[in-house]
Amino acid sequence: MWILCEWRPVRLSPLVLASAAALLLAVALSGCEQVATYTQPSLVRVIDASYIAPAANVTVEGQLLAGNIGQGTITAYGTLPATNYAPIDITASTGGGTLVSTTGTLPPGGQSSILLEDNGAAPTGYQVTILQDQQVPAAQGHSAFRFLNQAPRTGAVDVYMVPANTTLANTIPLVTDLPVGSTTGYISFTSQTVTMVVTPTGLTTPKYTSTSMPLVGGEVRTVLIVDTQLTADPPVEVFMADDVGSTY
Fold first, then answer.
1. Whole-angstrom Cα distance, residue 204 to residue 2?
2. Does residue 13 carry a pLDDT above 80?
C-alpha cells in the first residue's frame, strides 16, 4: 500500500519568528559570556639566591611550588591560578615557622620568577621579589639574556659575551657596573658562539669564565651571579636557566 504525502510550506507567524530569534540570541550570548570569563593560568618558578636561608619550601596560594631548595636553584615553571594577591610563604624544609612571606600578582597567561634573596635587615634578613619573565623567543638571529647580581663580596660587575676567536680586551661589555642586588632587563645581542666572562666593574681579571656557548638565535635566559663563598675576593659562580627555548 502506498501513501502519498503532499509537501506544503508552512508560514510562521511574526510572533513565532521573533521568539525563535530571541532564543538563538540568548544562546549565543551565553556562549560568549563563558568565553569572556575564562582565565588563563600563570606560570611561576623560584630562584633561590639566599646565602643564609636554610633549605627551603616555597608555597604559593597554598600549593607547594618548590621543596628543599638551596642557593643557586632555578626551578622549572609550575602552573598556578592567576590572581592579584597570591600569598607566598617560604619555610625551612625541616619544619618550623615562616622565614618570609609576601603577596604578589600572578597575571593570567603570564610568566614570573619568585626571587628569594638576603637583605641584611632584621628580623628575617630575607626578601622576596617577583620578576616578570619574557615569554616569547628573542628575534631571529638574536639572543636575550637577563642578569641578576647577587655577589656581595665581588660587588658591582661587568659581563662580557666574548665571540669565538676574540679576546676579552677586544670585546665591549654587554653589561657594565651592575650593582649587587640589581637585575637587568632582557638584553638582546647578535647570536653567535660566545664565552661569558664576569669581572668586577672596571677590571679585566675574570671572576668567572663560562665554557663555549653556541647561540643560534631565539634563546631567552636568566643568569644568576653569586659569590662562591663569603670570604674576601672569592670567584663567582653562575647559574643559568632557559626562560624560553630556542626556536630557530
1. 103
2. no
8-state DSSP, 170: G
Q: Considering the chain, what percentage of its residues have pLDDT values greater than 70?
A: 81
With a CB cutoff of 8 Å and minimum separation 6, the contacts of 177 are 156, 158, 201, 202
Map grid coordinates 631548595 to a residue. 69
Residues 149-174 have a mean pLDDT of 96
Three cell numbers at 223?
643568569
How crowded is the C-beta side of 216, counted as CA atoms within 13 Å? Answer: 4
For residues 78 and 66, give the distance between their C-alpha atoms in angstroms, rounded to a whole number: 9
134-248: CATH number:
2.60.40
d(CA 129, CA 104): 9
Average pLDDT, the chain: 86
| CATH class of residue range 40-133 | mainly beta
Asked if residue 123 has a cis previous peptide bond (ω within 30° of 0), the answer is yes
Could you tell me which residues come within 8 angstroms of residue 86 by beta carbon, excluding any fewer than 6 positions away? 60, 61, 80, 103, 104, 105, 106
Rounded Cα gap, residues 212 and 163, in angstroms: 9
Cell of 55: 633549605
Q: Are strands 220-227 and 142-150 parallel, antiparallel or unpaired?
A: parallel
The residue whose grid cell reads 540568548 is 26
Residue type, 97: G
Give the helix/strand (H/E) hosting 218. Answer: none
Is residue 237 packed enough to be buried (19+ CB in 10 Å), middle (13-18) or exposed (0-12)?
A: middle
Domain spans in the chain, listed from the N-terminal domain onward: 40-133, 134-248
